[in-house]
Amino acid sequence: xxxxxxxxxxxxxxxxxIVSWHxxxxxxxxxxxxxxxxxxxxxxxxxxxxKAGHIARLLAxxxxxxxxxxxxxxxxxxxxxxxxxxxxxLARPGAAPPAPRQAAAASSAIRASPAVRAxxxxxxxxxxxxxxxxxxxxLTRADVEAAAGxxxxxxxxELRGARRSMAVNMARAWREVAHxxxxxxxxxxxxxxxxxxxxRLVRAIVAACSAEPALNASxxxxxxxxRENAHTNLGLAIDSRDGLFVPVLxxxxxxxxxxxxxxxxxxxxxxxxxxxxPDELRGATITLSNFGxxxxxxxxxxxxxxQVAILGAGRILACxxxxxxxxxxxxxxxxxxxxxxxAITGGQAARFLAAAMIDLALAG
Length: 364
Known about the structure:
The chain is an alpha+beta fold. The chain has helices spanning 99-108, 114-123, 141-148, 161-176, 197-211, 257-273, 346-361; strands spanning 2-5, 15-21, 28-29, 34-40, 43-48, 53-58, 65-67, 71-75, 179-187, 217-220, 225-228, 234-236, 238-240, 243-245, 248-249, 286-289, 309-313, 317-318, 331-340. Strand 13 and strand 14 form a beta hairpin. It is globular and about 85 Å long.
């Protein structure tokens, strides 16, 4: 037998968690056929087969964390290694396929991400009985948990998947970055009642990065160097039941509001379906957290290096109006700008925030 080990998944990742196997012992696979789905850095990734062959043994169970370079499965070797039925191959005329293959075919026809399938197995939910609520007939985690009457456990236990990744990344960021935060508020009474708040915040960040490019930069702690980025790739913090996800909106300075909204909606759908690719979570040059959609006015946020800034937007409230002002015309949006004080001065941060506030104060 020869073993196939967990390959290097890039970005310095050292391990991954097995979500679900797409093959079984005794199956024959072809080159590039998906073997297993693994979760790392908040993304679920399918690992393809490096060769055609016969699966002798699966060496890791779902839920197991496997180090890069550790064995995942064993291929049979020898003259009979290539024998067997290819997974998914049509049966010969007149031959009835085995029941397990029928079940596998029915399961594969259901539109659900590997993470959702794994959750269904945990809860004992039959996906074929569910009515999908996701886009294009996609089953979501919420569909599965609603069918099981399940909520996330309130008690303790080992953090896994996205929450484990969040714990590791936040602890590292807190150790490495010299966090400093400034707060202010901007009057947004000129906004339309139907204003797209997130898109307005994106526009304000683009304007602020143009006014003070040092905050759209990457800091190298080893060489104590700051590199301004040519593109503005905006990380958008999205809360979910599985943890915090920060997909990246690419090159927002060169896009329109309609393109921003399309990227935002696509990112939210991908978070819900747990279908984000690793590349969609990498390369942010600055981050936005619009936490005010839930609650809160101000926050001291955490920067993930090599970024040097994150802008937080709090809950919009109507403020006491002056003489002759209608109460609804005086609405205040609180902002919190956290920056890495190793690389950014208080003056640079204040100028960035001032530029963002000027843009936000304008009518749409």
